[in-house]
Write a structure and sequence with these properties.
The chain has helices at residues 2-21, 24-31, 41-49, and strands spanning 67-71, 77-80, 84-85, 93-94, 102-107, 114-119, 125-130, 140-143, 148-152. It has 153 residues and is of the alpha+beta class. The structure holds zinc ion (ZN). Zinc ion is lined by residues 71, 73-74, 76, 119, 121-122, 124.
Length: 153
C-alpha cells in the first residue's frame, strides 16, 4: 500500500516537472508553422514575430470587390468582404471574422492591454481586435494586409 502511493507521488512529481519544463507557451509556439514557403521576410516578421506593417501601405485598403480574405500562410478563409470597412487607421479593418477563423489571446506589449488574434489553423499572427467597431458586432479587427490574400468571387 505504502509502495503504491509512493509510486503515484513520483508520477505526479514527474508530471509537474514536465509541465514546468514544457510550459504552455512552448506548446503554443509549436502549433505555429510556416506552410507557405514563399512568404517574404516582412510577412514572416508579422505572422511569426507579432510584427506590424506600416499603416497606409496595404494594397487591400482600396479593395472593394466581393469575395473572401484568406490567411497568406495557410489559405484558411478568414473574412468575408461584406465585413470590411474603412476605419481610417491605415490597416484593413473588418467588423467580424468567419466563425472559428481565429483564436485570441491577451497582449500586454507597449503598456496596453489588447486582444491579439491569430489564425486558428496555422497560428500565424494577424492583428488585434478592438471593441470600437461599427455595425451590430461592435468589433474592429485591425488586420495586417500582408497576412491576407484576397480572392474575388
Ligand atoms: Zn493560417
Amino acid at each position: 500500500m505504502m509502495k503504491f502511493s509512493k509510486r503515484k507521488f513520483t508520477k505526479i512529481l514527474l508530471f509537474s516537472a514536465l509541465t514546468f519544463l514544457f510550459p504552455i507557451r512552448a506548446i503554443l509556439a509549436a502549433t505555429k508553422k510556416i506552410i507557405n514557403q514563399n512568404l517574404s521576410e516582412e510577412q514572416k516578421k508579422i505572422m511569426f514575430n507579432e510584427g506590424t506593417e506600416r499603416p497606409f501601405t496595404s494594397n487591400l485598403l482600396k479593395e472593394k470587390r466581393k469575395g473572401f480574405y484568406h490567411c497568406a500562410n495557410c489559405g484558411n478563409k478568414l473574412f468575408e468582404s461584406t465585413a470590411k470597412f474603412d476605419s481610417g487607421t491605415g490597416w484593413p479593418s473588418f467588423s467580424k471574422a468567419l466563425p472559428g477563423a481565429f483564436k485570441t489571446k491577451k497582449d500586454y506589449s507597449f503598456g496596453m492591454e489588447r486582444v491579439e488574434y491569430h489564425c486558428a489553423k496555422c497560428g500565424a499572427h494577424h492583428g488585434h481586435v478592438f471593441n470600437d467597431g461599427p455595425k451590430e458586432s461592435g468589433k474592429r479587427f485591425c488586420n495586417n494586409g500582408l497576412c491576407l490574400i484576397f480572392k474575388p468571387e
